[in-house]
Every structure is written in C-alpha cells, then in structure tokens.
Prior knowledge:
The protein is an all-alpha fold. Helices cover about 80% and strands about 0% of the residues. It is globular, with a radius of gyration of 13 Å.
Amino acid sequence: xxxxxxxxxxxxxxxxACDVANAAVADDDVLLASKNAALLDLLxxxxxxxxxxxxxxxxxxxxxxxPDDRRALYTKALSIARNQGDQFEIDEIEESxxxxxx
Length: 102
C-alpha cells in the first residue's frame, strides 16, 4: 500500500482494479469500459483528497489509453517520488515507463 494513503481508500482502488481485470479476462467490453471509468473516477477523487501523490498519478496513467498522456503522468509521478525519496514508487514507475517504450 502506498505511503500516505489510507488503507480503506487504496483497498477501494484495488477492488476496482480487480473488477477491470476480470472484465478484461471475460472479454466484456461494456463492463470493462464501465469499470475502467469507475476506477478513474475514484482515482481522480483520491487525487483531490491527497494531491499529486505518485501512486495515484501512476495508477491513473496505468488506465489511460493514450501513451503520451500515460508517459506524462508517469514522468510527473516519478519526479514526485524522487523528491520524496520513495524508492518503491520510483521502481514501480520506472518499470511502467519502460513498458510504454516496448
């Protein structure tokens, strides 16, 4: 769980992320779009609550379609994680950035 985020809030993110994954596995495009939208809505609400938190920004990026938008959010999240000295987030975000480049 990311530092500085209440467990109940991150548990809600995790639950919706599982719903997104399950909809993708079920190949249900309508449910997938609905769950993805719900997850992004929750993440933007958490962004309002916690501000520009690297885990929130990176997770938003995970669920965006546009690679340029994803890269921009990952880059911002990485900068914040570096400023905070959060090595776990740095490693996670750098891996996400590498996956875009592949």
